[in-house]
Amino acid sequence: MRAPDAILPLRAEGLGFRAGGVAVLQDVSFTLAAGPPTLILGPNGAGKSVLLRLLHGLLAPSAGRVAWDGPAPDPRRHQAMVFQRPVLLRRSVLANLRYPLFLAGLDRAEQDARAAEALALVGLEALADRPARRLSGGEQQRLALARAAALRPEVLFLDEPCASLDPAATGAVEQIIQALAARGTKLVMTTHDLAQARRLAGEIAFLHRGRLLEHGPAARFFASPETGEAAAFLRGELIW
Amino acid sequence: MYDLQAAVTQAIGLVAAGDPTLAQIVLLSLRVSLTAVLLAALVGLPLGALLAVARFPGRGAVVAFLNALMGLPPVVAGLLIYLLLSRAGPLGSLGLLFTPTAMVIAQAVLVAPILAALTRQVLEGMWEEYAEQLRSFGAGPARAVPTLLWDGRFALLTVLLAGFGRASAEVGAVMIVGGNIEGFTRVMTTAIALETSKGDLPLALALGLVLMAIVLAVNALAQGLRERGLRLA
Asked: Which chain B residues contact residue A99 at CB under 8 A?
């Protein structure tokens, strides 16, 4: 059964990206279907963030293409992204939540309903009228998540959302991420944090030096990695 | 020879008594400069915001040209508007030369590049920060313009005040296109220049005091808004 507004599966075909003559990504192909979270794992500089931006359409590939194979006519409307450092508008928390909903063409009542729901999801109800940029780092990232969630995307891209947060804030963010996964949002998230990948992943895509070395169920990846690089990464060796 | 102390005392007396000649000159100055800044803002702010988000060949040259225009000498701006509005000029038939309207136009021409250049500076950094997130929301550069103007509102108020400071303090442009006609186009700066050369120091000093007070008030306001803005956004 496929909903008429579904955009998945997502197909990457021979994706490559070059910046300043350097190949950041080479020949990356895979298919992502609805289901548990996909974690894109790899050391810093492996090309994880670039891959996420290519999939979300923020960057144009130098080679290959990204295809959304679902029946929905406008895939852009059904995805959202949360960045490593949250980009919050210089407005109140509530106004930040309303902004993308307004751009999406929702009326004021629907904007308010979704904003209230998203605030409850991330536990920021009490801060609705605060200037967003006065919030703590963890609260800012929760607001960024709420703002993305309020769009009710089918696919949510998360680029190292906990990289600059302390353990308590990371825990809060992971809880929200799991709640979103539980309600059926397909999460595609980058991380270089093995422990976080073990906690969240349904499947793993392992990137190394711009190439996709492994892609499969998380349990299998962690139990018996197929490549030497992945095995070394799992042992905690410093690979790059 | 004149007695400086007596001149200062008389000047304070004129301000305190609300001398009608003085009041008329001050009010015309405010009307001309405020209208000019408003008109310049309608063009300069969107233009600056557009330049902050747009990427096109030759953009660097446009930015450099705009920055250079910030230093446009008021007398040159006045001369250009004079040539346009004079009897033989392309807009001569409008009969605007030596009217307050001509003064508004000249000051607006002087201030618009300042507002546009400062707006671009203020909003460009913000755009670098916002661009990816806004594109993720489906908003391109054109949609970003009103967003940036709103999010930069506190910084842009200080930009507007800088423009007002420039307009209210210049003498060259309004002198050339206004003609400093008593009771009609005489403003604070042109009156100060005239009264000083005539030797009527009390009136010149009184006007100078008012002008100083306005400039100080504007700067205090700018400072206050900046601090308030930092707290709020």
From this structure: 137, 147
Pairing of strands A203-208, A211-217: antiparallel
Using one digit for the tens of pLDDT, what is the confidence trace for B182-213? 999 999 999 999 999 998 888 888 888 888 88
Residues in chain A: 240
Residues in chain B: 233
Domain range list for chain A: 10-234
Of B136, B143, B147, the CB nearest to A81: B136
The β-bridge relationship of strands A38-41 and A186-191 is parallel
pLDDT at B3 over 80: no
Q: Give φ, ψ of B16 to 5 degrees.
A: -65, -35
Per-chain mean pLDDT for chain B:
91
Fold of A10-234: Rossmann fold (3.40.50)
Q: How far is B71 from B118, CA to CA, in rounded Å?
A: 12
CATH code of residue B15:
1.10.3720.10
What's the whole-number mean pLDDT along residues A103-111?
A: 95
- Amino acid B195 reads E
Pairwise CA distance, residues A146 & A115, whole Å: 8
User: How far apart are alpha carbons A100 and B136 in whole angstroms?
Assistant: 9
Range of the domain at B153: 4-232
Tokens in use for B161?
Answer: 């005040």
Count up the domains in chain B and report the number: 1
Query: CA-CA distance, A96 to A94, in Å (whole number)?
Result: 5
**A89 shares contact with chain B (CB less than 8 Å):** yes
Say if CB A29 and CB A96 are below 8 A apart: no
Task: Give the pLDDT confidence of A30-72 residue by residue, as tens digits.
Answer: 999 999 999 999 988 899 999 999 999 999 999 999 999 988 8
A9 touches chain B (CB under 8 A): no
Q: Is the ipTM of this complex over 0.95?
A: no
The two tokens of residue B149 are: 């103007």
Is the link from the previous residue into A61 a cis peptide, with omega within 30 of 0?
Answer: no
In chain A, the residue whose alpha carbon lies closest to the alpha carbon of B130 is A87
Tell me the pLDDT band of A1, cut-offs 50, 70 and 90: very low
How many angstroms separate the CA atoms of A139 and A173, rounded? Answer: 9
Q: How far apart are CA A144 and CA A140, in angstroms?
A: 6
Residue located via tokens 């103007």: B149
Taking the C-alpha atoms of residue B212 and residue B26, their distance in angstroms, rounded to an integer, is 12
- Indicate whether this model's pTM tops 0.90: no
